[in-house]
Amino acid sequence: MGDLLFLAHRSPFPPDRGDKIRAYNVLKYLAERKRVHLLAFADDRRDLDDGGLASLTASRKVFWRDKSRVAATLEAMAQGKPASLTAFDSTAMREGIADILTRETIDTIYVFSGQMAQYVPADFAGRVIMDFCDMDSLKFADYAKDARGPMRWLMAREADKLRSFERATADRVHASLFVSAAEAHLFRTMTGAKNVQVIENGIDTDFFDPEAAFKIVGERGPLIVFTGQMDYRPNVEAAAWFARDILPVIRVAHSTTRFAIVGRNPTDAVRALASDAVIVTGEVADVRGWLAAATCVVAPLKIARGIQNKVLEAMAMARPVVASEPAAEGIDHDGTILSGARVDDIARAVTDLLGDKRRAEALGRSAREQVKRRYGWEARLAPLGALIGKAAAARNAA
């Protein structure tokens, strides 16, 4: 039985944002079953320290990625490719992969995120598992709808080029994985791909537990919390929409309510939202303290693909959650979170929860129980065992 090569667009450690949390838990699950070699990129200097991955990997190498968006776009235009691929195109990565495939017996390549599919050698004879997570091409199609002028054309071009690449990738791999049934259905419908499977995101309910040991922040009064990577466009747009359009409606009934935007790397646009009513924290050591302090947690994303970790984390912390319909769509919440599509819908749901503490607490407790039943990592990742088992069986038969 051979080893597994894990390719990731961002180092899985530390698991401190949505994509890295999924990648880390998938890597951990696979490492318990096969010998794993990891090659990944980093765009944060802290991620170059790979010591946290030592116990999971037989070998590992993290490459620094600093190609600018402008350079990636110019390369994409010249080469007729999507910028999502040229942004991650690296000679060093190709050489690292060639070296591993030469030195080690690899029977399975696990590709995490579509940008990394370009690195699977055309002549690789083993099994390739493609974890798309969600359908990136649709994200850019959504961007195009809201853009104007040349940017609209660029986003539409990216969506079209990326969709063609996703379709071609699905045709050459053994399995295409997505985080939700809705996302998998869209992919099948739009690409005609056959072997599409759902591997949902999970949550560590021992860590995200209101009874665990952590420091609760000292904010007083009604507090609404939104968490996420705050240089990620959908999060930036969500924070601005809530702060400017939804929060003022809520404050008509609850005038002392404050809105906390909690997450690393807030853009200038996010920092500009700060006021007496809006807190912009930047990076925090432990998001659980803010979640525990929240009277209500919101996820007002206009563009959301797959399962939102931020929603699972809030549910696990037994907080009442109000999400936009796109943010709630991929989650099997069984009515334990509230959702809405418009300003009035979301504002009304939050206002009602702020005015009914007993209902809010009951909803939060139900949300935690639902997450414990439905979203433990071991259960969510169990289908991966069969996928890599098939790879091992095929290798032994050969």
From TrEMBL:
What superkingdom does the record give?
Answer: Bacteria
Q: Which UniProt keywords apply?
A: Transferase
Q: Per its UniProt record, what SUPFAM superfamilies does this chain match?
A: UDP-Glycosyltransferase/glycogen phosphorylase
Q: Which chain positions lie within coiled-coil regions?
A: none
An MF annotation (GO) of this entry: glycosyltransferase activity
Q: Any idea what this protein is called?
A: TIGR03087 family PEP-CTERM/XrtA system glycosyltransferase
- Organism, scientific name: Sphingomonas panacisoli
